Amino acid sequence: MESLKLINEVNSYLDELSNYKKVISNMDEIIDMVKKYKEEMSSFVNPFGNIKINLDGLSANELSEVRKQIKMIKYIAYLKKITLLRAKLSFSSLAVGQRLINVMKVPEESDYLSFIPYNGNLLGYISRYGVISSILYSRMKVLLSLTHLPEQHKIKIRYKDEKNDEKQEILILTNINGLNKKIKEKYGEDSEILSIDPLKKPIIRSGHVRSVVSCYYSLKACEERFESLRRKHITNKIKMYKKIVSGDGFDEWTSLNIIREHPKLMDKLIAGGFVDKRISQSIDEKEYASENIEYVYNQEFEPEILIYRRRIIDSLSSYAKKDFLNHLYIYYMTTSKTYREKNNLFPTLATEPNETQLSVFDGISWTNKDVLSEKFRIEKLVKEDHKYIGPALYKIRLNEDVEKVAERFNVDPEGLKRNIKIISSLITGRGKEFLEKVNFRKGRFAMDNECKF
User: Fold this and answer.
1) How far apart are CA 414 and CA 67, in angstroms?
2) What integer is the mean pLDDT of 281-299?
3) Is 448 exposed, middle or buried (0-12, 13-18, 19+ CB in 10 A)?
4) pLDDT digit string (tens) for 73-83?
5) 419 contacts 385 by C-beta, under 8 angstroms
6) Better-predicted residue by pLDDT, 427 or 248
7) Are 393 and 378 in contact (CB under 8 A)?
8) What confidence category does residue 93 fall into, taking pLDDT thresholds of 50, 70 and 90?
9) Which of 73, 265, 361, 431 is 20 to 30 Å from 97 by CA-CA measure?
């Protein structure tokens, strides 16, 4: 009963967090409360996980009663799990909302802050634009978790060369099956593996935070671009189709499986040449004949509406990813590692991404991951204003206009010009030699390509 009371109390409290303006005005208090609920529900992670039930020797009536009890126990366990999950999502949402305000400087009165599921009802948020926002959300999750990339590992080995001198080497491998045997064959029996570090790590470690961030940027993209893309790509035929279905509260994105439940509307679509009705006969095991009715888009209309939908979804997906990556790139380029550790853009975001994680920037035209990687190396060695190191390096390496770079990274042009001279002296001549020696001593050089055995 105590558990059910807590479940009811937590869900009632989270339900009240649907008003984002009230949440923002009481953020610290709410964060403390949700954190308290999370701690109280710590035992909900594996509810009843250790319970074992022996049904041997029970009568039929006893078995029936026990099964009822088991069903109730399973239901309570389910309530515990989803309530704890909801509280975790709420806590991550509050943390993300706080970072958007404090680090990204999103104004507290901005309606964009309503795209964060503070109440923990993630599914309710990602379906705000129906199938469109749901697809964008899924694609953003793939980007943030790097599931689209092959596995990669950084292997540090020790071996002896021909002169019997001890050496160390770092390899980047995608396949580590039978690794020890392959290392022995290539580097000798005295060789050994010192460490194996997986490189394909999500750029945001927490799965709940990835979900919240994906939700935010997906809904933001829909809010900012959906209607303009709709107007751009809609055809006269699709306009006619939309006009017909809108009479029943649907639009051109509604599935035919839903519309088919409205026979009169379906008849209008058939009469308009948008949908075809297919009837087929089937015979079951008892040789009873039945009539199967299937509704499909007309073969001339189908390509038109599918292309329309794909163009909009792909454009929105690209916009959402670019929006996130633009913010992320500027953040990395204009902050120090110390600052990022104390004021991370998002909770559990990598403060210094490895080469695999930096690949998220490959699809963005203006970002350059090589410049960012070099910036990470240089920022450890200089005491200059870290706000300018990245933009100065960007200007030098890509030969961009100073004013344009200053505007892009939101820095003072005069300050940028001063720092360009400082960074130039570091990456050329004796400064370059110094950096290379320091980096070499710190073991920062690794093979960029996969090692072939």
Assistant:
1) 76
2) 73
3) exposed
4) 788 888 988 99
5) yes
6) 248
7) yes
8) very high
9) 361
What does DSSP say about strands 275-283 and 192-198: parallel, antiparallel, or unpaired?
A: unpaired
Angle at alpha carbon of residue 54, lines to 50 and 55, rounded to 5°? 140
Residue 412 token pair: 């003072």
Buried b (16+ CB within 10 A) or exposed e, 277-301: eeeeeeeeeeeeeeeeeeeebbeeb
Most confident of 39-48, 408-417, 422-431: 408-417
Across the strands, what pairs with 159? 167
Radius of gyration of the chain (CA): 29
- pLDDT tier for residue 288 given thresholds of 50, 70 and 90: low
Q: Which 3-state string (H, E, C) describes the chain? A: CHHHHHHHHHHHHHHHHHCHHHHHHCHHHHHHHHHHHHHHCHHHHCCCCCCCCCCCCCCHHHHHHHHHHHHHHHHHHHHHHHHHHHHHHHHHHHHHHHHHHHCCCCCCCCHHHHHCCCCCCHHHHHCCCCHHHHHHHHHHHHHHHCCCCCCCEEEEEEEECCCCCEEEEEEEECCCCCHHHHHHHHHCCCCEEEEEEECCCCCECCHHHHHHHHHHHHHHHHHHHHHHHHHHHCCHHHHHHHHHHHCCCCCCCCCHHHHCCCHHHHHHHHHCCCEEEEEEEEECCCCCEEEEEEEEECCCCHHHHHHHHHHHHHHHHHHHHHHHHHHHHHHHHCCCHHHHHHCCCCCCECCCCCCCHHHHHHHCCCCCHHHHHHHHHHCCCCCCCHHHHHHHHHHHHHCCCHHHHHHHHCCCHHHHHHHHHHHHHHHCHHHHHHHHHHHHHCCCCCCCCECCC
CA-to-CA distance for 390 and 396, rounded, in angstroms? Answer: 10
Task: Give the span between the Cα atoms of 428 and 415, in whole angstroms.
Answer: 20
Instruction: State yes or no: pLDDT of 282 exceeds 70.
Output: no
Place of tokens 């059910």: 4
pTM: 0.84
Q: Residue 453 in contact with residue 179, Cβ under 8 Å?
A: no
Over residues 317-343, mean pLDDT: 94
Instruction: Evaluate if residue 435 carries a pLDDT over 80.
Output: no
- Cβ contacts of residue 211 below 8 Å, gap of 6+? 89, 92, 122, 141
When pLDDT is cut at 50, 70 and 90, the band that residue 445 belongs to is: very low
| Residue 49 pLDDT exceeds 60 | no
